[in-house]
């Protein structure tokens, strides 16, 4: 008898098939002597839509709500019908004796496989492959220690509860809002609190009143001293008269050194990356959206196999990974990491190292390099950037702490105290991995900055002191960008209305709003639903979102709700809470939410109506701005017609080199830049043709690799020499 292996995606299935020596391609699978490997396309099966329970639910009507199926039905995703039938056929083969689940090792991965098996009516024994990387070594070791698939039944229960709960609350609340106010309004336990977080920040910005603050700076003999209030310890005051009076009283006096403290200090490398931390860094350094970073990570994990599983919420590795560190160092020890890796290659890693903690690793450890040898030339520029972040972080935790000498100087002018600090690096330690690129976030007052201090001792007097009043204005909180909003979703306790310490603790323990695997998709959904919009890099609420937050039930706006759900789902996965008890509460909650919306007294008004009429139904259309495009959308939700009138492009302005918007339709399309530059699409194509567009950096790189052992004075090289590539 053979075993059927179900992978989540074709690329992973091919890797598993190669390791298991399966080489015969059949419909939707790869067969070998002992195994058959098949795959999903992500999810093949999902919870059925309301109209699958009764055709009347295809029309959205308030009187039909709430929708409460006694038993949830499953349906095959329409675009995946062919692959589902192929998988089902393999499941029911007479020569298949058992099923091996090899989908992603996590809650959603478990759901992918289990829904397929339930829909196909599988009765055969199941086993589970649980691995964090898809290298040949990891696959072989994983198959050597397969577990009984039913050991993961609680994880499946938790995944199914999450899906059914989101269906019950999301579909009923969204249909109720849409029908009650005749507008396309959607809400959910994660996306609505995320909107509320942005709304709270906008409220703080609107209510902020800037105040002018003042300080006093003393300069003499190459040293700058900053005044500090003797009572509060602050370097600032809002009392202008006081600071000016101090300057007049102290002008011309000598400063006396009262204290010089010198201390040797250490800083350790930041912890390893989990997905959210990597997404935040990638946005900060490269401007990659969370979704872009996840997609790049997925390619590095699945296709290149050089990084471990990306959807992790842990920043630690478990002790069983420690013996593999040397192999991982050897695999990534290519230029520009060869010398850095060589320095720690021969150093034994202690199981008690700060980044090793079994208790802080749940399903998956932190993102680190695999044992797969890396070929940097096979990566895109974006993949190289993300890989570089992960490898340098991995190398840095293996290096010793950075050591520096910090000098704190206190001087007196009259009765007032002034301070200065200096720092001298003694041992670079982990900072060597980053060179000059790594910025340290100082905990010191930003006004008291490090400087190079002359040698001074207690009692020394400083002559020729010049005093100057400094001033500035307090600033409102910054608007969210994609990186900071991601951080707020991970740590939403500061945005809770209740200020409940226990709820805040629960939010911290459960990972905030959503999961590392879903936050990027949630953010994209909010942009796609025209609830959020970007102006430059800053995120704003749309008028639609502001009105939605007025109409939606209060509970759905609170981070506490999703924290409560995630805590209970974790208990279900651990076998400590029954699925039936959780779902009973969810049904009651969905019914209460629906009734609250049904009896609501609010109104919804479109304030973005245009004079353009819908070509389908004739009603006036709405002008909306999405994440990367401007659209016209029919105001009639049942019509649903939409047209793109402008979209972001990768074309660079020849004047300021910023990305341009493409507006219009057909040959009449025009590129428009924020600097004012305009260019017809036809003219743009002609210009790019002259500049040599179409030859990518990868084409050039491959060509140069082929030329290493050949003379380079060829006709093709001459042609390449004149090509200008976009940066």
UniProtKB/TrEMBL annotation:
Enzyme class name = isomerase
Is Aminoacyl-tRNA synthetase among the key words of this record? no
So what does this thing catalyse?
ATP-independent breakage of single-stranded DNA, followed by passage and rejoining
> Is Ribonucleoprotein included in the keywords of this UniProt record?
no
Q: By its UniProt entry, which SUPFAM superfamilies does this protein fall under?
A: Prokaryotic type I DNA topoisomerase
Q: Which HAMAP family match?
A: Topoisom_3_prok
Q: Which family does it belong to?
A: Belongs to the type IA topoisomerase family.
| Disordered, as annotated region | 435-455
Q: Mind listing the UniProt keywords for this protein, alphabetically?
A: DNA-binding, Isomerase, Magnesium, Metal-binding, Topoisomerase
Instruction: Note down the stretches annotated as region Interaction with DNA.
Output: 186-191
Q: Which positions does the site annotation Interaction with DNA cover?
A: 60, 167, 175, 311
Q: Where does Mg(2+) bind?
A: 8, 104
Q: What residues form the catalytic site here?
A: 309 (o-(5'-phospho-dna)-tyrosine intermediate)
The Toprim domain covers 2-135
Ranges where the Topo IA-type catalytic domain occurs: 152-594
Instruction: Write down the SMART domains for this protein, in alphabetical order.
Output: TOP1Ac, TOP1Bc, TOPRIM
Q: Which cofactor does it need?
A: Mg(2+)
Main function? Releases the supercoiling and torsional tension of DNA, which is introduced during the DNA replication and transcription, by transiently cleaving and rejoining one strand of the DNA duplex. Introduces a single-strand break via transesterification at a target site in duplex DNA. The scissile phosphodiester is attacked by the catalytic tyrosine of the enzyme, resulting in the formation of a DNA-(5'-phosphotyrosyl)-enzyme intermediate and the expulsion of a 3'-OH DNA strand. The free DNA strand then undergoes passage around the unbroken strand, thus removing DNA supercoils.
User: What name does UniProt use for this protein?
Assistant: DNA topoisomerase 3
EC number of the protein:
5.6.2.1
